[in-house]
TrEMBL record:
Keywords: Glycosidase, Hydrolase, Lipid metabolism, Signal, Sphingolipid metabolism. PANTHER family: GLUCOSYLCERAMIDASE, LYSOSOMAL ACID GLUCOSYLCERAMIDASE. It is found in: Lysosome membrane. Pathway: Steroid metabolism; cholesterol metabolism; Sphingolipid metabolism; Lipid metabolism. The gene is gba1. It comes from Parambassis ranga (Indian glassy fish). This is Glucosylceramidase. It catalyses: a beta-D-glucosyl-(1<->1')-N-acylsphing-4-enine + cholesterol = cholesteryl 3-beta-D-glucoside + an N-acylsphing-4-enine; beta-D-glucosyl-N-octanoylsphing-4E-enine + cholesterol = N-octanoylsphing-4-enine + cholesteryl 3-beta-D-glucoside; a beta-D-xylosyl-(1<->1')-N-acylsphing-4-enine + cholesterol = cholesteryl 3-beta-D-xyloside + an N-acylsphing-4-enine; a beta-D-galactosyl-(1<->1')-N-acylsphing-4-enine + H2O = an N-acylsphing-4-enine + D-galactose. Pfam families: Glyco_hydro_30, Glyco_hydro_30C.
Length: 522
């Protein structure tokens, strides 16, 4: 039966209901459909969906978090762990004594473009966006990659030492982009985080006067040879970068030996690049970067080699890590996700881990929309969320200890980018409306970053039969268990989880869904 209320009263009730949603912090997604296969969640200065801080129920119960193409976004529910099997066709058995790598963390990159986009919003909306990524109510990012000087996601070309012949780096200075944008945002992100952020530095190019081609872009490498003055100055450039950021109380967990060294080996590469062969990288680390770091105030900063696509493995690792002089300064191998489909994870990541188990594998860059066949921003693309989740699960199941997305935020064109290399991002900013959209890929990241705390250890999980489901299991530092399940198929898959410590968990993965299950064992 319809209520025949006067329209002013009806309007008042609508406003009261809206106010209740805002003030009670309701976690529902404000869904918007832009014509792709799913939706985005719209956020503004006063409202954003959030699953909040997660506390697991007592032993004997489990929590479940579901995101799906149909529109679920970290939809939370709880259930009872059973003493008896449900008789499901598929059983996933947790094998806690099979122990693998420990998680370092998940995150994204504070590029110039990301900083420009975040700062284009009002103060309240900026805060909301940073909370969504870095607070415990948000998705708990713990890793931030920071480009050293400009990259393609900048609005201009620059380095920190553009004075020709400045081998002593007397004129080394941070850019306005660092001082006015990236550093303040990193400080704010750190203030929101309940843990110290793991900052990761990567350089795209050395100054032009140090390079064989005299340009920041295109095919070019450092002049001279490792051990020579250009190579030594380039190592000191890293130290000076760490020095300058330390003045703002920002210290770096790790640095990479340079973004995509193979790019600078190619002809006419369109944006900033610095070419290294694996042999040159090995010798530069052994003779220049390693000793410079060791003698600096940052001897404990980690050095990650490669910072390029995994199809270069295990060859690149063999060349660099077989050298005892380089190997002693190195902690890990950094990989990008581009062209992962060209080489199986087992013969790249798996073989590298088995050859060099003392060096960890870490994902340092990934984004959707980079391929010429599937370019730019797609608001609401669930297919891209599945690409993320598939790659993360595959990486985790092959010894990778963390996974870093690319730009934290982009505009609706996928920029700014000075060379128009537009891509997608988990957060897209609409400055005109002072809102931002959380893409399905944001929730893909959340299913891992929010639940896999630093120190969580991957453990065995075995399936009772063939299945289309993809999955990975972890025991967290507090002893609780997390199982992440991806269903890329068009049908629902019923299954049960058997954890010998607690019993049976009946579950189902809806079509095109990502599911995180978590429970206490004591």
């Amino acid at each position: 039966m319809a209520l025949s209320l006067p329209s002013p009263v009806l309007l008042a009730l609508v406003f009261i209901a809206a106010e209740v949603i805002l003030t009670t912090g309701s976690s529902q997604c404000v869904a918007r459909n832009f014509g792709h296969d799913s939706v985005v969640c719209e956020c503004n200065s006063t409202y954003c969906d959030s699953v909040g801080s997660v506390t697991l129920p007592p032993r004997g119960q489990y929590s479940s978090y579901l995101s799906s193409r149909a529109g679920s976004r970290l939809e939370a529910s709880q259930g009872q762990i059973q003493v008896k099997s449900s008789g499901a066709d598929l059983r996933l058995t947790i094998v806690p004594y099979q122990k693998y790598q420990k998680i370092r963390g998940f995150g994204g990159a504070m590029t110039d473009a990301a900083a420009i986009n975040i700062l284009s919003l009002s103060a309240g909306t900026q805060e909301q966006l940073l909370r969504q990524y870095f607070s415990s109510e948000g998705i708990g990012y713990s890793v931030v990659r920071v480009p050293m000087a400009s990259c393609d996601f900048s609005t201009r070309l620059y380095t920190y030492a553009d004075t020709p012949g400045d081998y002593d780096l007397e004129n080394f200075t941070l850019a306005a982009e660092d001082i006015n944008m990236k550093i303040p945002l990193l400080q704010r992100a750190q203030a929101l985080s309940h843990q110290p952020l793991s900052l990761l530095a990567s350089a795209w190019s050395a100054p032009t006067w140090m390079k064989t081609n005299g340009a920041l872009t295109g095919k070019g490498s450092l002049k001279g040879l490792p051990g020579g003055k250009e190579h030594k100055t380039w190592a000191q450039y890293y130290i000076r970068f760490l020095d300058e950021y330390a003045k703002y109380n920002l210290t770096f967990w790790a640095l990479t030996t340079g973004n995509e060294p193979t790019a600078g080996e190619m002809t006419n590469y369109s944006f900033q690049a610095l070419g290294f062969t694996p042999e040159e990288q090995r010798d530069w680390v052994a003779l220049d970067l390693g000793p410079a770091l060791h003698a600096s105030s940052y001897p404990h900063t980690h050095v990650l080699i490669l910072d390029d696509n995994r199809l270069l493995l295990p060859h690149w690792a063999k060349v660099v890590l077989n050298d005892v002089h380089a190997g002693r300064y190195i902690h890990g191998v950094a990989v990008h996700w581009y062209m992962d489909h060209l080489v199986p994870a087992e013969i790249s990541l798996g073989v590298t881990h088995h050859l060099y188990p003392e060096y960890y594998l870490f994902g340092t860059e990934a984004c959707s929309g980079w391929s010429p066949f599937d370019r730019g921003v797609k608001l609401g693309s669930w297919d891209r969320a599945e690409q993320y989740a598939h790659d993360i699960i595959e990486d985790l199941n092959h010894y990778v200890v963390g996974w870093t997305d690319w730009n934290l935020a982009l505009d609706q064109t996928g920029g700014p980018n000075w060379v128009k290399n537009f891509v997608d991002s988990p957060v897209i900013v609409d400055t005109k409306r002072d809102v931002f959209y959380k893409q399905p890929t944001f929730y893909s990241m959340a299913h891992f970053s929010k639940f896999l705390w630093e120190g969580s250890q991957r453990v065995g999980v075995s399936a009772s039969g063939q299945t289309e489901l993809e999955f990975s299991a972890f025991i967290r530092p507090d002893g609780s268990v997390v199982l992440i399940v991806l269903n890329r198929s068009a049908s629902v898959h019923k299954f049960e989880v058997w954890d010998p410590a607690v019993g049976y968990i009946p579950s189902a993965a809806p079509a095109h869904s990502l599911l995180t299950l978590a429970w206490n064992t004591h």
